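Listing S7. Sequence submitted for prediction.
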Amino acid sequence: LGADMGTLEEVLSQADVLSVHVPLTEGTTGLIGAAELKKMKSTAIVLNVARGEIIDEEALADALRAGTIAGAGLDVYRVEPLPADHPLRSLENAVLTPHLGASTEEAQQNVALEIAGAVRAALLEGDLSRAVNAPGVGGDRMRRLRPLLDLAERLGRIGATLAAVPLKTVQVRYAGKAEDGLGPISAAALIGVLSEVLGHDAVNVVNAMHLATGRGIAVERTRLSARDDYAEYLEVRLTGDGETIRVGGAVLEEAHPRVVRIGEYHVDIQPRGDLVLLRNRDVPGVIGRVGTALAAAKINIGQYHVARLEAGGEALAAIGVDGKLSAAVMEQLRGLPEVTAVQQVLLD
C-alpha cells in the first residue's frame, strides 16, 4: 500500500488528512485534543468516523474557528444526536452527518443477505466460521474436519458412559494434519461427554466449553507429535476421583473413523449405531453365550471385536448391535457367569 508506520507526533505534523479509525478505550478517549490539533498543518482536515469521545469536540470547534486546521468531517459525536446548540453546527468548515452509515437501504440488504447465508451454512453444512462465539470452522475446512469432529463426539460419549465418577478433567489429545483443528475437535468431544448427562439437544459447539466450566470440569487440549501407526489420531481422557478413562480413535484414509482404543485395550470398531461394551473373563464359550442371548432377544450383531491383555485374564468385547438393548436383556447379559460388566452406548 506504500504506507509508512509513524508515531502519533509524526502523523499529526505530516498529515494532510487525519482519519480516525480506532476503538474507544481508556487509552483512546481524548486522543486528539487542543495540544494535538495545534501540531497539525493549517491546511489539514480531520475526519472522525470511529467514536465521538476520541476527539475533544470543544477543542476541535475552537481549532476550526481559529483556522488552526482547515476543516473537519464527523459522523460520530460524544452525544448522539448532536445537540442543536452545539458549536460545531455553526461552523462552515465542518461537515456533519448522522451516525447511520450502516442504515442505508443497500447496507441493510447486504447485512440481511450475509446473515441468511451464515445461518444457511450453519444449518445445512455445519459451517460455523461466521459465528462469533463458537470455534470457527467453515467451508472446505469443515468438510475436511467433519470425520474428526464426528469421531471426537462419539469418543466423548463412550468415555462418559464408562466413567463411573463425577468428572474433574477432560483432556483432548490430537495427532494429525489439522493445524488449527484442536479447538473444534475439543468442542465436539465435550458435546459427546456432556450430552450423556444434559441431553444431546442441550449441548452444542457454542455452549459446550461454558457448560463444562460451569460443572467444574477442566478442559485440556494437547497437540501430539505425528504417530507411526495412524496419520489422524484422537484420544479423549476423562478423569475424576483418581480414575482415568482413555478412549482413542483414528480416521483412516481421511474419511473412515474407527475406535481403536478403550482403556488399555486395543480394538477396531466402527463408531456408529448402538455399541455394547462387555467385560468378561477370558474363557471359552463367552462369545457363543452372548450371541445366543442377543439372538433370543432378536438383536442382530453387526460387529463383534474382542481384545485382551493376556490369555486367561480379563477381556473386553465391543459389540455393535442393530438396536437398543432393553433393561431385561442387559440384566440377562450381566447374569452370565463369565461377564463382569456390561454397558451400552448410543452413538447415533
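Caption to Listing S7: primary sequence and predicted C-alpha cells for the chain studied. The radius of gyration is 31 Å. Residues 139-162 form the longest helix (24 residues).
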